[in-house]
Amino acid sequence: MSVVDIQLLVQTVLYFCIFLSGFAISIPVGVNTINFDGICILMRSSSRANCNFPVYMSVFVCIFYGLTIGCYNAYAVRKSRANQNIGSEMWVMPFILINSTLSVMVLVSASMISVGYKVFCDRLKEYSDVKSCGDGKNLKWTNTGTSDKFTPGNYANLLTVAQIACWTACLLFLLQVALGILRFHRNRRLRQSSSDRERIGRAEPTA
To answer: Where are its TM segments located (predicted)?
Structure first.
């Protein structure tokens, strides 16, 4: 029975989890912005840039990148059944650097959502009689730009999902970095062992 590279398999699963988390970030934040009549409520009803950054980050970093590299790793896992050395032949350092950079981007997005939502809730409780932030879904809101009235829907649940997904994606990227470093050291030991065996083989006396 052929055995796959377990570390490659784990990394593949993590990439597909990152891919799924992208939907759990972009959809709630996007829907919430639409429900608020195009206004981004993060950081005191601020510019839409504070909502656009998490949405675009989740689409390109989590969904596109996660799916692409997940499929690439899935192909490598399949090949590892026939070639157990496939993991040592793959690029490692570039992905360590890329995943490290992307983990910072996801961390920034998670902070923007969490801190922005807290600031919004603090302001809401300060200027209204709601006891909890989620109670604002029962209020009638007014778009200060168009004077249109609207109800925002259950924004608390949407942003809670987005926060959990974003912090989870950050953790998954950090795990990918850790696994990449582990693979790097493992490959270096394998190359060193192979080099030592070759040196010993050349030094053995011939009959």
So the answer is: 12-34, 54-75, 96-117, 158-182
